[in-house]
Amino acid sequence: MVLTPKTESKLVQLKAILEGHQAMLIVMQDNPDPDSIAAAVALRKLANTLANTQCSIAHGGTVGRGENRALVRYLGLNLRQIDQLDMKQFELFAIVDTQPGTGNNSLPSEIEPDIVIDHHPCRQQTRHSRFTDIRSKYGATATILLEYLDAANITPDVPLATAMLYAIRSDTQDLGRDTTKADIKALTALYAIANKRMLSEIQRGKVSRDYFQMMADALKNAQVFANAIVTNLGQIENPDMIAEVADILLRDDQTNWVMVTGYFKHKMMVSLRTYEENVRADKIIHGIVARKGTGGGHPSYAGGQIPLKDNTKRTKDRLEKTVLSRFLKQVVKDSVPKQPLIQK
Ligand SMILES: [Mn+2]
User: Fold this and answer.
1) Which of 55, 74, 204, 222 could disulfide-pair with 341, CB 3.0 to 4.6 Å?
2) Fold for domain 213-340?
């Protein structure tokens, strides 16, 4: 792979930060997707090899999606819950595929991470960290990490290469969204190493029976507003479901926008998807959660969360109304009648 000079000089900086430190905590998104998981494992490999630094990988939520659970099993990962760890045992803190204060990770707010590596737009708070590498044009954080491994002359082992390949494929939807040349280059390099059969098994990961009920409810509740589909999943056990449903609904051939909402642990979770080229999903999500919650993402996919004042139906109904009207005002413009997506 041809390296950008940037990665080589950044690698020197990264090594200097790691050297002499025994224990690092790597924080992922609360409900980590394949890119979070692959980026964390790749950074762990880098820290082990460059400076013999031992790493724990932690998050604050659940690994919900069947595919992601299969990936964690295949990697043999022992993921830790942040709130069950004593922060004093770590000398260094890193955060990958997310940033401090975004609302989708549980890094304690009093901890300023030493290392931030991400491909979401750079946030003000991130600039305080000692080491940052934010490449918001990149399709996946795994692509950034592969450049580091390459610069350090580390060839990822088969499970890591498989995870990184899956990360890039899923974040870019097989190079179909928010992709750069670097992602294509990384994917090509990883294909040579990855276990293709395992990849296919992971992608067809098993799901529980509840999955089908949830999917049926999501479709029954779905409403069409011109070129947009909106649905609410109600209380969910698995927060990844809102993204999964959003991806499926965006396949409707008359739809440019999808918004899916659901409730998880005293929060409303929002997932946005779009095919539109001129309007960015990560901008729209800010307009939806404004002054109520947090959100972020990429041009074609984004997510947000809004804490609930209480758990009453009235609070939820009012919030759903607000979120829906903020969404429609931004993406549909004219007021349009709603129609059910399917016959009940
Ligand atoms: Mn990512």
Assistant:
1) 222
2) Diaminopimelate Epimerase; Chain A, domain 1 (3.10.310)
